[in-house]
Design a protein that fits this description.
The chain has 102 residues and is an all-alpha fold. The protein has helices at residues 15-41, 47-79, 84-101.
Length: 102
């Protein structure tokens, strides 16, 4: 079994936000292992529907974790803004992040 990740402290995300995201990703990891098993065991054409259903569920879960990350980032970074100009700079960085990855 792999060693647990060392979670560092910083200003990117709070400890609770990191914990929540890591837990969600661990569940997705389990879903993907299940998909791999379904693919390995697929014997009939109808088995592909179960694989597709589980892949769609994993994709939706990963999309939801992406939204959770962005939400946490907005909250954490906007709360840390020193003044209005800093808040605008944070908003600009977050908008660029959304434009790039969403």
């Amino acid at each position: 079994m792999a060693e647990p990740l060392k979670v560092v402290e910083g200003t990117a995300l709070t400890a609770q936000q990191k914990k929540d995201l890591l837990n969600r990703l661990a569940r997705i990891e389990g879903q993907l292992r299940g998909v791999q098993k379904l693919i390995a065991l697929a014997a009939e054409p109808s088995d592909c529907e179960a694989v597709a259903q589980q892949m769609a569920a994993a994709r939706k879960a990963l999309d939801r974790s992406f939204v959770q990350l962005l939400t946490a980032t907005v909250l954490t970074h906007s709360e840390g803004a020193a003044d209005l100009d800093d808040a605008r700079a944070v908003a600009t960085r977050l908008a660029a992040l959304l434009d790039k990855f969403a």
